[in-house]
Amino acid sequence: MLAESFGLGEIRECHFLSTGLMNGNWRLETTQGAFALKRIMDVPLPLARRNLAVLAELADVDVPVERPLVSATGETVAEIAGRGYSLVPWTEDSHQPGTALALDQVTDLGFLLGQIHQNLNDVRTARLLPPVRSM
User: What is the DSSP string of 73-127?
Assistant: First the structure.
């Protein structure tokens, strides 16, 4: 059912990723490529949809993030049997704890975080987010 929702073709392999923090995560190998599948458990589905829309906006302005796939119904979250799922293309790499990063990697990460924050203030993205509250 999920493969049809997102047009993945035949699922050849499915591996559960035990290192996810808050959601169920899998790596899918399909006839259309490799994808990261997330069963959304940490936020309500409307908030997940909003977050995925922000991710797509960041991809539109060339922030190096993967664009969420859109289902046949135009949604970034597919609801199947009462659960929500999202998909992004798989990125080959490995998660590095912050203490394992070299100084040049920390610099690159800081630059990326700056790009993200700058673009979150952009008018296109800001329309998707609630206003910032003063402290």
Answer: TS-SSEEETTEEEEEEE--------GGG--HHHHHHHHHHHHHHHHHHTSHHHHT
